[in-house]
Design a protein that fits this description.
Layout lengths: L1 H32 L2 H9 L4 H4 L14 H17 L11 H26 L7 H31 L5 E6 L3 H12 L5 E7 L8 E2 L2 E5 L4 H7 L4 E4 L6 H10 L6 E4 L12 E5 L2 E5 L7 H37 L5 E7 L5 E7 L24 H8 L7 H7 L2 E4 L6 H10 L11 E4 L1 H4 L8 H13 L3 H14 L6
Parallel strand pairs: 1-2, 1-5, 2-4, 5-6, 11-12
Antiparallel strand pairs: 3-4, 7-8, 9-10
Length: 482
């Protein structure tokens, strides 16, 4: 029954994703070629002249919606959404995180379709305006559909519909912690019937939930109480009991999930890997890896290249000349920082301080109204324009556009002794900006608070979150920038 319900939900989401994407494409065609008022505006707009220059004639609808394009688009959507785990059970996932993943998936579909259009068709064959309209409409329709469906499901579960009957093996601290989390999220639709435990007598209540029996009776209890999911939350020393339960439930319809008694040792989001058929628990798995790491690196390369080409001969050259006119000394300031996997690299910035600024102080953070800062340097720091040369570090792969800010090796050695999780931030490339920076945590601010945001960013990374941080940086560059 559970598998049947799951297949139905997957079908609802997949069919909805595909149909709404096709509908968005049809609406985009209508807006570009059939809505006369919009067509006249596009044709008369100087701003959009470059977009519509290849679109003199009206394109027929069947150029966009035909059996071939429908099959390609449907396949791309289902494949990419499935690769991003959007057709897996989502009872325990936050809605906001799911919508971020949906947005990232739609962006990947759009990039894939744009690639096909521009490498396998004539430029005049497909309207770029239609593609742009389609992406925007697709985001609105699919995100709206997913959000509404999830909210409807959660509302139904709060009212007692679509519930999953669960039992917890182990009434110790780990089991009780899991029970509290289940109760804190009624919209997940889990109904805890009781514990299985060898230390408590049958019928005794633990945190308001009865003891259903001993661990050895797991099969009979699951059958008698029609348990849908069994969560094993036993301490490490009871691994033999866990193996016995797993063996007894082999071939049964109940879903068995193990909550490892290793949570206190996890440094990042854990995951299960496979080595020649042998499952291995990764205690510090970074989400910025594999295909996601490739996409992040691709965004770094494209963005840094475009900005360097656009701003290099103008803004960046002008800043360099002003620095030379303002104060003697080199234009650029190079300093060793620690990046990915703790490897040192030379970070480049525009020089904003006098030469040998740390001759008398040693390595220290800059502070407000720092006497070492030059006149032009104060302006550059205030607008974060002194960071622009780091685009070269991004292009070389030493940094990323978004990530934890890199620190000097001397500070790293100091902080790693004081803060146990500090080195987690070196599991990803350092960034020109980051989540902590848009919160105003930069320079001589609380390192403990910065680490919290850095770890949250790494654990919850997505391409969409990177885009959001880049956008918010435009409005927060002045926070604690001195």
């Amino acid at each position: 029954m559970l598998k049947k319900h799951h297949r139905l939900m997957v079908c609802m989401f997949a069919v909805g994703d595909v149909l709404l994407s096709l509908a968005a494409l049809g609406i985009a065609w209508y807006l570009r070629f059939a809505d006369e008022s919009l067509v006249r505006y596009l044709a008369s707009s100087d701003l959009l002249a470059r977009i519509v220059q290849f679109e003199v004639e009206v394109h027929p609808l069947n150029r966009y919606l035909n059996p071939l394009t429908i099959a390609l688009l449907a396949s791309a959507i289902v494949f990419i959404f499935r690769a991003n785990h959007l057709y897996h059970p989502k009872r325990s996932e936050n809605l906001g995180e799911e919508l971020l993943t949906v947005f990232q998936s739609l962006l990947e579909v759009f990039l894939f379709c744009t690639f096909l259009v521009y490498f396998f068709t004539d430029k005049a064959w497909i309207s770029r305006t239609v593609l742009l309209f389609w992406f925007c409409l697709n985001v609105v329709l699919v995100l709206g559909y997913r959000a509404i469906l999830r909210l409807m499901l959660k509302a139904a579960r709060r009212r007692g519909f679509n519930l999953r009957q669960i039992a917890i093996v182990g009434a110790g601290e780990l089991g009780r912690t899991f029970l509290r989390k289940v109760r804190a999220h009624p919209s997940l639709g889990f109904q805890a019937l009781g514990f299985l435990d060898d230390e408590h007598p049958l019928g005794e209540e633990v945190d308001g939930v009865p003891i259903l029996g001993h661990c050895k009776d797991a099969l009979a209890i699951c059958q008698d109480h029609r348990i849908d999911q069994l969560f094993i939350a036993l301490p490490l020393e009871q691994h033999k009991t866990m193996l016995s339960i797993l063996q007894s439930l082999q071939g049964e319809c109940v879903t068995v999930k193990v909550i490892p008694d290793l949570i206190q040792y996890f440094t990042l989001r854990g995951g299960v890997e496979e080595f020649d058929g042998l499952p291995i628990i990764n205690m510090s798995q970074s989400p910025v890896s594999g295909i996601h790491g490739m996409l992040k690196r691709l965004m770094d390369l494209v963005f840094s290249s475009l900005v360097l080409l656009a701003a290099g001969p103008t803004l960046m050259l002008a800043i360099a000349i002003l620095i030379k006119l303002d104060y003697r000394g080199p234009v650029f300031f190079r300093q060793q920082r620690m990046g990915l996997d703790g490897r040192p690299f030379e970070m480049i910035k525009y020089r904003t301080m006098v030469e040998d600024a740390e001759r008398h102080t040693g390595p220290v953070f800059a502070c407000e109204n720092d006497s070492r800062t030059t006149r032009l340097g104060r302006i550059l720091r205030r607008l974060s324009l002194d960071e622009l040369p780091q685009l070269w570090n991004v292009l070389k792969g030493e940094m990323s556009l978004v990530g934890p800010r890199p620190e000097r090796p001397s500070f790293v050695e100091e902080f790693r002794r004081k803060i146990p999780d500090y080195m987690i931030r070196h599991r990803v490339r350092s960034g020109m900006t980051g989540l902590a920076q848009i919160k105003g945590l930069r320079g001589n601010t609380s390192i403990e608070e910065r680490i919290k945001y850095d770890i949250f960013y790494i654990e919850n990374w997505s391409l969409a979150r990177d885009c959001w941080i880049l956008f918010m940086t435009l409005f927060t560059v002045h926070k604690n920038a001195y």
